[in-house]
Amino acid sequence: MAEAAGHRDVDVPKTKKAFVPLENNPEVMTHLVHQLGLSSNLAFHDVYSLTEPSLLSFLPRPALALLLVFPVTSTYEKFRQEEDSSQEEYSGSGEGERVVWFKQTIRNACGLIGLLHAVCNGAPRQQIQEGSDLQKLLKDAIPLKPVDRAELLYQSQALESAHADAAKKGDSTASDAQAKVDLHFVAFVKSEDGDLWELDGRRKGPLNRGKLGPEDDVLSEKGQELGVQAFLRREEEAGGGELRFSVVMLGPSLE
């Protein structure tokens, strides 16, 4: 399954460079973040059900981040625009920033932005290896305001090279960088202070979805209630019907 373009062209001009869409595949995602510098102690895993206990029990916990992958619908676009209309443009930066948020300015890169949101926040951030490309990128990004931070990603040769290598892997034939596909990635992460955040490079900034308890991870009942299930429920209640989606989780490696 490839990542989204389509509706995002209004936010990322066609004059901007484009990446080959990243396959929605936990092995590909894991390869990419390990290549960038995340510890091999963590990996991405398919979540085959959000509600079936027997399937949830197979997943290594804690779930440190979720990536929700879904088709961009008119219902979603309407909700996004309505919610964003009441939000100020995010301007956070520096060590006091509660979460690190990246604005997307590279076409076909929502999968990459989702991965960066997953590994650069909360507990996974402590698993980034010293001296790695990811550690250097995060160190350079933290002092920057969102526009300059986005430009840092845009100009990063290490990021572009690692993404290109990962895009060649997976079960399906890699799409062309100019391909238009209809899927989008949104990350849900638990910050160090226990809040659940929805992170999407298409939005005006990070979205705080509420407080989690010390024992709650992003896949817990409370984590889902505030995060992924609330997202899916909004789509259904707005008349979008049942949303076709998939979920990938960042958690302990099984190897």
UniProtKB/TrEMBL annotation:
Report the source organism. Endocarpon pusillum
Describe the family membership recorded for this protein in Swiss-Prot or TrEMBL: Belongs to the peptidase C12 family.
Q: Which residues form the UCH catalytic domain?
A: 18-252
Q: Which reaction does it catalyse?
A: Thiol-dependent hydrolysis of ester, thioester, amide, peptide and isopeptide bonds formed by the C-terminal Gly of ubiquitin (a 76-residue protein attached to proteins as an intracellular targeting signal)
What domain of life does the UniProt record list for this protein's source?
Eukaryota
The name this protein goes by in its record: Ubiquitin carboxyl-terminal hydrolase
Q: Which InterPro entries match?
A: Papain-like_cys_pep_sf, Peptidase_C12_UCH, Peptidase_C12_UCH_sf
Keyword terms of this UniProt record: Hydrolase, Protease, Thiol protease, Ubl conjugation pathway
Site Important for enzyme activity: list residues.
200
Identify the catalytic residues. 110 (nucleophile), 184 (proton donor)
Look up the record and give one Gene Ontology term from the biological process aspect: protein deubiquitination
The EC number(s) given in the record are: 3.4.19.12
GO cellular component terms attached to this protein's record: cytoplasm
Question: Which GO molecular-function terms appear in the entry?
Answer: cysteine-type deubiquitinase activity
- Which residues are annotated as site, described as Transition state stabilizer? 104
